Amino acid sequence: MRRRQALKVVKEFDAFPKVSEDYIKPTTRGGLFSIVSITIILFLIVSELSYFKDSEILYEYMVDTDMTSTLKLRFDITVAMPCEFLGADVVDAAGSSKSLQQEVHKEPTIFELNKEQKAWLAAKQEVIRRHEGLRLLRDVMFDSHPQQYIPFPEHPQHSAPLTSCRVHGHIQVNKVSGNFHITAGQAVPHPQGHAHLSAFVPTNMINFSHRIDSFGFGVSTPGMVDPLEGTYVIARESNRLFQYYIQIVPTTLQMRGGSDLHTNQYSVTERNRAISHKAGSHGLPGLFFKYEIYSLMVLMKEVDRPLSLFLVRLCAIVGGVFATLGMISQFLGYILGFFKRTKSEET
C-alpha cells in the first residue's frame, strides 16, 4: 500500500507535460526538422568532445624572487661586413663588462638571399606577425601537434666572395639590465670598461645591414619563435646605429605531465638613426640590444576541463537545438497555414 502511495506521489510530481498520442499528428515538416535537429546535435557533440579533450591554460602573475641566477642569451645574426672588422661584447647594470672572444663564433658568409631563403624568411615573418608573445608560446607548448622548427637554409657558397659575417653563439648574462652589441672594430678592455677600435675600420667597409635568424633568452624550445627572428634590415647609410629595446618576462610553463619549463619571453621596440657628429648625432655604428627584466613572472598552467562543464554544455546543446528548431517549425507552420486560409477564402 505504501509503495502504491509513493508511486502516486511521484506521478503527480512529474513536471514534464504529457500529450496524448491521439493529438499528435506526424508531418513531413516535423520529420525533416527532427532529422536536421539530430544532425546538428551530433555535430555539436563531436565538437564539444574535441573541446573537452583539450586542456585549458590558466595564467598567474607573481614576483620573481630569483635574482642570483643567470640568463642564457642565444643569437645568430648575419651582418653585411667582413668578420675582421666586427666586435661583440656585453655590458650590464652591475658593472660587468665581458669581451666575447670565446663565446662568439664568426663565420664568413654571403648576405644576399637566394630564392629558398627568401621564401623561408617570408614564412617566418608571417608566423611572427600572426602570433605574438605568450600566445605563441602557449600554442607551441600545449598544442597536440606543435610546429617543428625549420633551421635557416644554408646558402650555397659556390664562387661568390664571402664579404659578410655570421655572428652566432650563446653567453651567460647576469639577471640585470644590460646591453649586448655588435659594432665596428674589435673590443679592447680597459679599467673603466671597454672601447672599440672603430677608427681603424675603413669607412667604405662599414655596413650594418643585418638579418637576425635567432635571438632569445633561456631554453631553446622547438617550434618557439622569438619576436626578433626573421628581422631583415638594409642600412641606408654606412654609419648607422640600430637599437633594439627588449623587455624580458620570465615565464614558467607547468604541463599536465608534471614537467615544468622555465624560459623567457620578450617584447621589442626598434629605433635607428644615422651617425653624424656635425649634426650632433653621436655614437658608434652597430647593433645594440638593450634588455631589461621585469620583476614579475608569468606562470602558465595546463589543466583539464571539468566533467561538469561538459555535461552542462551538452544539456544546453540538446535543449537549445530542439527549442530553437521547434520554434522555427511552429513559425513556418503558422505562415503556411495563414497562406492556406487566405487562398481558401479567395476561392
Automatic annotation (TrEMBL):
Keywords: Membrane, Transmembrane, Transmembrane helix
GO BP term, pick one: retrograde vesicle-mediated transport, Golgi to endoplasmic reticulum
Record keyword Repeat present: no
Subcellular location per the Swiss-Prot or TrEMBL entry: Endoplasmic reticulum-Golgi intermediate compartment membrane
Sequence ranges assigned to domain Endoplasmic reticulum vesicle transporter C-terminal in this UniProt record: 163-328
InterPro entries: Erv, Erv_C, Erv_N
Membrane topology (UniProt): Multi-pass membrane protein
All residue ranges annotated as the Endoplasmic reticulum vesicle transporter N-terminal domain in the record: 10-97
A cellular component annotation (GO) from this entry: endoplasmic reticulum
TM annotation in the entry: 32-52, 310-336
Family under the similarity heading: Belongs to the ERGIC family.
UniProt name for this protein: Endoplasmic reticulum vesicle transporter C-terminal domain-containing protein
The organism's taxonomic lineage, starting at the top: Eukaryota, Metazoa, Porifera, Demospongiae, Heteroscleromorpha
